[in-house]
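Hi Prof. W.,

I finally got the Lipoprotein prediction working! I wasn't sure whether to trim anything, so I left the full sequence exactly as given:
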Amino acid sequence: MSRMPRARRVRPLALVAALATVPLLLVACAAPAELKPAALPDGLEVRLQQGRLDVEARRLVVRVENTGGEAVTIDGFELEAPTLATALVREEAFELPPGDALAIRLPLPPAECGAEAGAAVLHVDATTPDGPAAGELTPDDPFDTLARVADADCLAESVDTVATIAVPEHLRAIGSGVDRRAVIDVLVTPAASGSGSFVIDRVYGTTLLNAEGGVDWPVGVEISAGDAPQTISLDVRPARCDAHAIADDKRGTILPFEIRTSDGRAGRLDRSSGATLKAELYQYYGERCGLALPAG
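And this is what came out:
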Protein backbone atom coordinates (compact mmCIF):
# COMPACT_ATOMS: atom_id res chain seq x y z
CA MET A 1 0.00 0.00 0.00
CA SER A 2 1.40 3.28 -0.92
CA ARG A 3 1.96 5.87 1.76
CA MET A 4 0.37 9.31 1.72
CA PRO A 5 3.09 11.95 1.84
CA ARG A 6 3.35 13.70 5.20
CA ALA A 7 2.50 17.06 3.81
CA ARG A 8 -0.80 15.73 2.43
CA ARG A 9 -1.67 14.04 5.74
CA VAL A 10 -1.27 17.17 7.89
CA ARG A 11 -3.02 19.52 5.47
CA PRO A 12 -6.56 18.90 6.79
CA LEU A 13 -5.44 19.79 10.32
CA ALA A 14 -3.76 22.95 9.08
CA LEU A 15 -6.86 23.90 7.10
CA VAL A 16 -9.07 23.48 10.15
CA ALA A 17 -6.79 25.68 12.19
CA ALA A 18 -6.70 28.30 9.45
CA LEU A 19 -10.46 28.36 9.10
CA ALA A 20 -10.82 28.74 12.84
CA THR A 21 -8.82 31.95 12.70
CA VAL A 22 -10.86 33.52 9.84
CA PRO A 23 -13.59 35.03 12.07
CA LEU A 24 -10.92 36.60 14.25
CA LEU A 25 -9.16 38.01 11.21
CA LEU A 26 -12.44 39.35 9.79
CA VAL A 27 -13.20 41.05 13.07
CA ALA A 28 -9.72 42.51 13.23
CA CYS A 29 -9.82 43.74 9.60
CA ALA A 30 -13.40 44.99 9.48
CA ALA A 31 -13.80 48.70 8.87
CA PRO A 32 -14.86 50.66 11.94
CA ALA A 33 -18.57 51.50 12.08
CA GLU A 34 -19.51 54.90 10.64
CA LEU A 35 -19.78 57.60 13.23
CA LYS A 36 -23.20 59.11 13.54
CA PRO A 37 -23.10 62.85 12.67
CA ALA A 38 -23.51 65.19 15.59
CA ALA A 39 -26.46 67.53 15.94
CA LEU A 40 -26.33 70.82 14.06
CA PRO A 41 -24.64 73.59 16.03
CA ASP A 42 -26.73 76.30 17.63
CA GLY A 43 -27.07 79.53 15.69
CA LEU A 44 -28.08 78.26 12.24
CA GLU A 45 -31.18 80.09 11.04
CA VAL A 46 -33.10 79.85 7.75
CA ARG A 47 -35.52 82.28 6.11
CA LEU A 48 -37.55 81.92 2.91
CA GLN A 49 -38.26 84.91 0.69
CA GLN A 50 -38.57 86.22 -2.87
CA GLY A 51 -37.49 89.44 -4.52
CA ARG A 52 -39.51 91.08 -7.28
CA LEU A 53 -37.41 89.50 -10.01
CA ASP A 54 -37.57 86.09 -8.33
CA VAL A 55 -41.36 85.98 -8.68
CA GLU A 56 -41.33 86.10 -12.47
CA ALA A 57 -38.23 83.87 -12.67
CA ARG A 58 -39.90 81.28 -10.40
CA ARG A 59 -37.11 81.17 -7.87
CA LEU A 60 -37.18 80.76 -4.11
CA VAL A 61 -34.56 82.44 -1.93
CA VAL A 62 -33.28 80.26 0.91
CA ARG A 63 -31.30 82.52 3.24
CA VAL A 64 -29.04 80.64 5.66
CA GLU A 65 -27.42 82.58 8.51
CA ASN A 66 -24.83 81.57 11.08
CA THR A 67 -25.42 83.48 14.31
CA GLY A 68 -23.15 81.14 16.29
CA GLY A 69 -19.56 81.63 17.35
CA GLU A 70 -17.79 79.17 15.01
CA ALA A 71 -17.53 78.74 11.27
CA VAL A 72 -19.77 76.11 9.70
CA THR A 73 -19.58 74.51 6.26
CA ILE A 74 -22.98 73.65 4.83
CA ASP A 75 -22.29 70.59 2.69
CA GLY A 76 -25.79 70.56 1.23
CA PHE A 77 -29.45 70.85 2.09
CA GLU A 78 -32.89 69.76 0.97
CA LEU A 79 -36.03 71.83 1.47
CA GLU A 80 -39.33 69.96 1.71
CA ALA A 81 -42.81 71.46 2.01
CA PRO A 82 -46.27 69.91 1.61
CA THR A 83 -47.19 72.42 -1.11
CA LEU A 84 -44.12 71.65 -3.27
CA ALA A 85 -44.31 68.72 -5.69
CA THR A 86 -40.61 67.96 -5.21
CA ALA A 87 -37.89 69.08 -2.82
CA LEU A 88 -35.48 71.92 -3.51
CA VAL A 89 -31.94 70.55 -3.35
CA ARG A 90 -28.60 72.32 -2.94
CA GLU A 91 -25.59 70.02 -3.32
CA GLU A 92 -22.77 72.56 -3.54
CA ALA A 93 -21.05 73.28 -0.22
CA PHE A 94 -20.57 76.79 1.12
CA GLU A 95 -18.84 78.38 4.11
CA LEU A 96 -20.66 80.38 6.76
CA PRO A 97 -18.30 82.28 9.07
CA PRO A 98 -19.75 83.52 12.38
CA GLY A 99 -22.25 86.33 11.80
CA ASP A 100 -22.42 85.70 8.05
CA ALA A 101 -25.37 84.74 5.83
CA LEU A 102 -25.88 83.56 2.27
CA ALA A 103 -29.02 83.93 0.13
CA ILE A 104 -29.32 81.00 -2.27
CA ARG A 105 -31.74 81.14 -5.20
CA LEU A 106 -33.22 77.84 -6.35
CA PRO A 107 -35.75 77.12 -9.11
CA LEU A 108 -39.24 76.42 -7.78
CA PRO A 109 -40.86 73.08 -8.62
CA PRO A 110 -44.58 72.91 -9.46
CA ALA A 111 -47.02 73.24 -6.60
CA GLU A 112 -48.78 70.26 -5.03
CA CYS A 113 -52.29 71.65 -5.34
CA GLY A 114 -54.07 68.85 -3.51
CA ALA A 115 -51.85 69.01 -0.44
CA GLU A 116 -52.77 70.52 2.89
CA ALA A 117 -50.63 73.43 4.04
CA GLY A 118 -47.92 72.62 6.56
CA ALA A 119 -44.53 73.70 7.80
CA ALA A 120 -41.47 73.41 5.59
CA VAL A 121 -38.40 71.49 6.76
CA LEU A 122 -34.78 72.04 5.77
CA HIS A 123 -32.61 68.90 6.00
CA VAL A 124 -29.00 70.01 6.43
CA ASP A 125 -25.63 68.24 6.21
CA ALA A 126 -22.80 70.30 7.65
CA THR A 127 -19.19 70.18 8.82
CA THR A 128 -18.13 71.93 12.01
CA PRO A 129 -14.72 72.24 13.71
CA ASP A 130 -15.72 69.14 15.71
CA GLY A 131 -16.66 67.06 12.65
CA PRO A 132 -19.73 66.20 10.59
CA ALA A 133 -23.19 67.29 11.70
CA ALA A 134 -26.69 66.83 10.37
CA GLY A 135 -30.22 67.75 11.34
CA GLU A 136 -33.41 69.59 10.48
CA LEU A 137 -34.22 73.28 10.64
CA THR A 138 -37.64 74.94 10.47
CA PRO A 139 -37.39 77.90 8.08
CA ASP A 140 -38.91 81.26 8.93
CA ASP A 141 -41.36 82.36 6.24
CA PRO A 142 -42.29 85.88 7.37
CA PHE A 143 -44.15 86.83 4.18
CA ASP A 144 -45.91 83.46 3.67
CA THR A 145 -43.94 83.01 0.47
CA LEU A 146 -44.64 79.29 0.10
CA ALA A 147 -48.37 79.78 0.58
CA ARG A 148 -48.43 82.65 -1.90
CA VAL A 149 -46.51 80.63 -4.49
CA ALA A 150 -48.84 77.66 -4.08
CA ASP A 151 -51.93 79.86 -4.34
CA ALA A 152 -50.65 81.47 -7.55
CA ASP A 153 -49.59 78.16 -9.12
CA CYS A 154 -52.85 76.42 -8.29
CA LEU A 155 -54.92 79.36 -9.54
CA ALA A 156 -52.97 79.22 -12.80
CA GLU A 157 -53.60 75.48 -13.02
CA SER A 158 -57.36 75.99 -12.57
CA VAL A 159 -57.43 78.78 -15.15
CA ASP A 160 -55.40 76.80 -17.70
CA THR A 161 -57.92 73.95 -17.64
CA VAL A 162 -60.60 76.43 -18.76
CA ALA A 163 -58.79 78.78 -21.15
CA THR A 164 -55.49 80.37 -22.10
CA ILE A 165 -54.95 84.08 -21.48
CA ALA A 166 -52.32 85.50 -23.84
CA VAL A 167 -51.01 89.03 -24.19
CA PRO A 168 -50.28 90.03 -27.82
CA GLU A 169 -46.93 90.19 -29.52
CA HIS A 170 -47.51 93.79 -30.61
CA LEU A 171 -49.15 96.91 -29.21
CA ARG A 172 -52.07 98.34 -31.20
CA ALA A 173 -51.57 102.10 -31.48
CA ILE A 174 -52.71 105.13 -33.46
CA GLY A 175 -51.49 108.72 -33.66
CA SER A 176 -48.09 110.05 -32.80
CA GLY A 177 -46.31 112.09 -30.18
CA VAL A 178 -48.21 113.10 -27.06
CA ASP A 179 -51.45 112.42 -28.91
CA ARG A 180 -50.62 108.78 -29.45
CA ARG A 181 -53.08 106.23 -27.98
CA ALA A 182 -52.54 102.50 -27.57
CA VAL A 183 -54.39 99.30 -26.71
CA ILE A 184 -53.22 95.89 -25.46
CA ASP A 185 -55.48 93.24 -27.02
CA VAL A 186 -55.53 90.21 -24.67
CA LEU A 187 -56.73 87.03 -26.37
CA VAL A 188 -58.70 84.53 -24.27
CA THR A 189 -59.01 81.11 -25.91
CA PRO A 190 -61.27 78.66 -24.03
CA ALA A 191 -60.63 74.92 -24.06
CA ALA A 192 -62.65 73.10 -26.69
CA SER A 193 -64.56 71.14 -24.03
CA GLY A 194 -64.96 70.92 -20.27
CA SER A 195 -67.18 72.17 -17.50
CA GLY A 196 -65.07 74.75 -15.65
CA SER A 197 -65.25 78.52 -15.80
CA PHE A 198 -63.66 81.64 -14.35
CA VAL A 199 -64.41 85.34 -14.05
CA ILE A 200 -61.88 88.05 -14.82
CA ASP A 201 -62.96 90.81 -12.46
CA ARG A 202 -60.29 93.33 -13.38
CA VAL A 203 -56.78 93.91 -14.60
CA TYR A 204 -54.70 95.98 -12.21
CA GLY A 205 -52.63 98.95 -13.24
CA THR A 206 -48.86 98.65 -12.88
CA THR A 207 -46.04 100.93 -11.85
CA LEU A 208 -45.69 101.89 -15.53
CA LEU A 209 -49.15 101.55 -17.09
CA ASN A 210 -52.69 102.51 -16.11
CA ALA A 211 -56.09 102.43 -17.78
CA GLU A 212 -56.89 105.42 -19.97
CA GLY A 213 -59.82 106.36 -17.76
CA GLY A 214 -58.37 105.50 -14.35
CA VAL A 215 -55.86 103.17 -12.74
CA ASP A 216 -57.26 99.65 -13.20
CA TRP A 217 -59.27 98.07 -15.99
CA PRO A 218 -62.65 96.76 -14.75
CA VAL A 219 -63.46 93.72 -16.89
CA GLY A 220 -66.19 91.57 -15.36
CA VAL A 221 -66.06 88.87 -18.04
CA GLU A 222 -66.96 85.22 -17.43
CA ILE A 223 -65.11 82.59 -19.46
CA SER A 224 -66.31 78.99 -19.76
CA ALA A 225 -64.72 75.98 -21.41
CA GLY A 226 -66.27 75.49 -24.84
CA ASP A 227 -66.88 79.21 -25.41
CA ALA A 228 -65.68 81.03 -28.51
CA PRO A 229 -62.39 82.94 -28.24
CA GLN A 230 -62.70 86.59 -27.28
CA THR A 231 -60.45 89.63 -27.03
CA ILE A 232 -60.21 91.90 -23.99
CA SER A 233 -58.93 95.31 -25.10
CA LEU A 234 -57.03 97.35 -22.50
CA ASP A 235 -56.49 101.01 -23.40
CA VAL A 236 -53.24 102.06 -21.77
CA ARG A 237 -51.64 105.29 -20.68
CA PRO A 238 -48.45 106.03 -18.74
CA ALA A 239 -48.94 105.75 -14.98
CA ARG A 240 -46.58 108.71 -14.68
CA CYS A 241 -44.24 110.53 -17.00
CA ASP A 242 -40.78 109.86 -15.64
CA ALA A 243 -37.80 108.51 -17.55
CA HIS A 244 -36.56 106.83 -14.37
CA ALA A 245 -39.72 104.71 -14.31
CA ILE A 246 -38.50 102.88 -17.41
CA ALA A 247 -34.86 102.82 -16.35
CA ASP A 248 -35.81 101.22 -13.02
CA ASP A 249 -38.67 99.08 -14.33
CA LYS A 250 -38.98 95.53 -12.99
CA ARG A 251 -42.65 94.60 -13.32
CA GLY A 252 -44.27 97.51 -15.15
CA THR A 253 -45.17 95.46 -18.23
CA ILE A 254 -46.52 92.45 -16.31
CA LEU A 255 -50.32 92.54 -16.27
CA PRO A 256 -52.00 91.26 -13.07
CA PHE A 257 -55.44 89.70 -13.70
CA GLU A 258 -57.86 89.38 -10.76
CA ILE A 259 -59.63 86.06 -11.31
CA ARG A 260 -62.21 83.80 -9.59
CA THR A 261 -62.57 80.19 -10.72
CA SER A 262 -65.54 77.86 -10.50
CA ASP A 263 -63.53 75.44 -8.34
CA GLY A 264 -63.20 78.04 -5.59
CA ARG A 265 -59.82 79.61 -6.24
CA ALA A 266 -59.28 83.35 -6.42
CA GLY A 267 -56.37 85.74 -6.72
CA ARG A 268 -54.02 87.50 -9.09
CA LEU A 269 -52.65 85.81 -12.19
CA ASP A 270 -49.71 87.56 -13.88
CA ARG A 271 -49.17 87.62 -17.62
CA SER A 272 -45.82 88.95 -18.80
CA SER A 273 -45.20 90.94 -21.96
CA GLY A 274 -42.81 89.41 -24.45
CA ALA A 275 -39.67 91.24 -25.55
CA THR A 276 -41.32 92.88 -28.57
CA LEU A 277 -44.40 94.11 -26.71
CA LYS A 278 -42.25 95.30 -23.83
CA ALA A 279 -40.08 97.38 -26.17
CA GLU A 280 -43.14 98.85 -27.88
CA LEU A 281 -44.71 99.76 -24.53
CA TYR A 282 -41.51 101.55 -23.50
CA GLN A 283 -41.48 103.43 -26.81
CA TYR A 284 -45.14 104.38 -26.43
CA TYR A 285 -44.57 105.52 -22.84
CA GLY A 286 -41.75 107.81 -23.94
CA GLU A 287 -43.63 109.19 -26.95
CA ARG A 288 -46.86 109.81 -25.05
CA CYS A 289 -44.94 111.55 -22.27
CA GLY A 290 -42.75 113.54 -24.65
CA LEU A 291 -39.59 111.99 -23.23
CA ALA A 292 -36.35 111.57 -25.15
CA LEU A 293 -35.49 107.95 -24.37
CA PRO A 294 -32.25 106.25 -25.49
CA ALA A 295 -32.64 103.88 -28.42
CA GLY A 296 -32.96 100.19 -27.54
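Confidence is low (pLDDT under 50) at residues 1-31. Does that look reasonable to you?

Thanks,
D.
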